[in-house]
Amino acid sequence: MSPVTFAYYCSGHGYGHATRVSALASHLLRLPELDRPAVHIVSSAPKHVFADSIGLGARYRNANIDPVIVQPLAYRVDRQQSVAVLKSFIDKKDAILQTEVEWLTEIHADCVLSDAAFVGCLAASTVGIPSILVTNFTFDSVYSYLSTTLVDAPVSHADDTHPHFNNLIPDIPVPSTELEPLVHQIHAGYRCAHLLLRLPGYIPIPSFAIDPSLPSPEWVDPLTNRFHNSVFASLDDLPSSPSLHPPVGYRGVSRREPARQIMPIPLLVRSPSPSVYLPMGRSQLLESIGIPSQYHDPNSTRILIVSFGGQMFRRPGRSGSATPSRRASRELSPVRGSFSHGSPPTVNGFVHGNKDIAFGRSPTSAKGSMFPHLQIPTALPSPSGEEHAFVFSAPRLATASHLWIPGAPPASKPLTTPISPRVSDGPLFQTIPPTPAQIESTYDQAYFDFEDIPEDDDLPRLLPDPSWIAIVCGVSKEQWNADEGGGDSDLPDGFFVAPRDVYMPDLTAIGDVLLGKLGYGTVAECVDSSTPFVYVSRPLFIEEHGLRRLLDHDGVGVELSRESYEAGDWAGAIETAWRNGKEAKNSERKDGAAGFSLKTREEEGGKLATMIVRWAETWGGNTA
């Protein structure tokens, strides 16, 4: 029997899909030679994101194979533009499907893996080969949730003259009657899949389980913005065959199909390098970012990683190059060796190639847009369905009054920085229940002993105390140069920037707390490295309910209201997260230094890869 050939479809929606696809492809390609399959990755995510697996022999093809949810900011969803993108894609679906059918035939694919592009499953069924979904959610439930009556209203803010707060797009629910026929086509594509490899952080997959069914707004209690108890109960049970939708049958051929099945699998995540848990490796990584040596000792310095990640991938520029730009001083690349294959370059949350090209549109006119410093024409999609590119003009990373975090709204810089902890407050939304207040705590004097703590603890603070530093990720070359120019940076004290191609699992591993949006890639890497996670909710993306559950079970998660984030009032949540997770973090650092964690992930990944190959040998094209 010849080696199995997999076609692996990867959604272009965000960074988490790409990292876990590359992780599983790498496990497949590390199998012994007799079992080692051929792996073809197809995605609109740029090639360099899959560098790990491509280095092991995976082949890459760039193609627009799924629609994306439009997120103008890390925790906001543009419902109307998301539906416009979906309609444009559905209009072209038949032509896209035909291209994929011809490509699968050309490469002699035996089985399709998909995370989580429905067209891949549909194309496999048309060719007459099985397909496997590898995911924690599917986009039929995501798009269906755009009809929820919960409204993501902007919070009030003291700096209401700032264009960000004046020009946020209004959040208007999409009528379910408009969504249902579009969502049905996505759902029908997923119904063609035979096996669901369900990742941790999962929510209901309605194309497999009969209950709960779409529409997904019915899963959520509008009074609490949490799943109904019945939905949580459904997640605790592995559905038996009678609880699953039956196979739909191959569209193109008549042959035996496998029974549909849901199989839980471990996290798919890139693991940190063991070297970063050792003093020399930690110092090498910090030195590569430009962190002075006095901040390298974990017993005297705590590190906050600030990373809001990319919002969506689009096809790179025509040059096809994704080589990061470099600088002679504080070079925009990490130390060679352990710290390679980094996160995709981002500008304000959009992933781009070497020309900083992305696709999208401005929520208002260019003159009155939410980001007046960005050059964003209203261009996606055009009436003809074509996509147009725009080029971002990045702002400075910090000004006298604001801190600009790539992918997120600006955060106010407090005028003073007291070090006494305080309680975070303020509603998360005007029409969504408020974020619970953070628990007030005191300092751990075993590590820190500060005097002259100010009595006034009621002012916003970015960091808990002077023992903390912050490393900001996703910074573009333009932002880097602007803040480095003339040595007159407006970054707050203790803030540093990381090169945009830094290897995020290593940086996450050395962090004591990470602040970011609630997405799979960040959650998985925090859980894997036992890094406490302070997150800002994005409640219109229904995946977050599963990710909260994962953090509650396997990690440490503390919610920070967007009002507190934008006010620069981070310190209370950061300290709470650190205190809740410090014991697990210290234990993980010991295990990581010994290589235990990496060995466990490699063993789990090898067993999963072997199972997938055996399943494909039984049911795939090789059996025809």
From TrEMBL:
<protein>
    <recommendedName>
        <fullName>Glycosyltransferase</fullName>
    </recommendedName>
</protein>
<dbReference type="InterPro" id="IPR053205">
    <property type="entry name" value="GHMP_kinase_L-arabinokinase"/>
</dbReference>
<feature type="region of interest" description="Disordered">
    <location>
        <begin position="315"/>
        <end position="347"/>
    </location>
</feature>
